Backbone:
DNA sequence: TGCCAGGCCGGGT
DNA sequence: ACCCGGCATGGC
């Protein structure tokens, strides 16, 4: 089992190569993407982010000032747009209340940052960890639906395994390094999209076949 | 056409 | 402590 966590990484890296994640030009953009992609296809998220870019709204100041209804309209393609507009507002407000800049907000230890993110309404464990790893670039392992499904398919977890349980599986076995956690999660998403979607009965050519 | 996508919250048992 | 409905668009 312990061995398999490393084996899976090696196979995926050999198969796909480095992934250059997260999609996003700046930490702020990455953070926004982390919220918008909640239970949502990344393709839709890109449309929403393009709208924000086109409206020149990718700064904390602008996002703090925009009306929620207007924000909702811009992020409409990402789905749950009213909900997510509120969540983005909560996030931006929390940051600007506590810090001068995004860098300042990130300039605390990992656990403190995680606690502060989880205290924000609309930020759960996956979104928090995505922000910590990909925007703040601190070493934390991100667990998502693909991670769960892939491990389940290889009998490495039970179906009812929770977030922390799955996260520990990785962090217990891997060196605590940002680039490694970054690559590993990105690779899991890629192989998930290719071979481990919810409706994908055939895994014939999955690189993880036999693990 | 229907089902799915890189969650999370709140209310009901 | 679980369980479940709600939230919503675009793509295959």
Residues:
């Amino acid at each position: 089992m312990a061995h398999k966590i490393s084996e899976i990484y090696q196979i995926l890296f050999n198969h796909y190569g480095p992934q250059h994640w997260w999609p996003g030009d700046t930490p702020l953009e990455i953070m926004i993407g982390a919220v918008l992609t909640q239970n949502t296809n990344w393709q839709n998220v890109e449309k929403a982010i393009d709208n924000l870019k086109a409206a020149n709204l990718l700064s904390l100041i602008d996002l703090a000032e925009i009306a929620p209804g207007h924000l909702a309209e811009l992020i409409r393609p990402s789905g749950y747009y009213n909900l997510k507009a509120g969540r983005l507002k909560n996030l931006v407000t929390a940051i600007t209340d506590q810090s001068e800049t995004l860098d300042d907000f990130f300039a605390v230890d990992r656990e403190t940052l995680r606690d502060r993110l989880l205290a924000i309404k609309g930020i759960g464990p996956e979104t928090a960890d995505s922000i910590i790893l990909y925007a703040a670039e601190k070493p934390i392992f991100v667990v998502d639906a693909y991670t769960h499904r892939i491990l389940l398919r290889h009998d490495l977890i039970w179906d009812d395994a929770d977030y922390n349980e799955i996260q520990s599986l990785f962090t217990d076995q891997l060196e605590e390094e940002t680039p490694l956690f970054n690559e590993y999660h990105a690779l899991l998403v890629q192989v998930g999209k290719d071979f481990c979607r919810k409706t994908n009965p055939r895994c014939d050519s999955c690189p993880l076949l036999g693990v």
Summary: Chain A has a mean pLDDT of 95. The radius of gyration of chain A is 18 Å. Residues 2-20+141-195 of chain A form one domain. DSSP finds twelve helices and no strands in chain A.
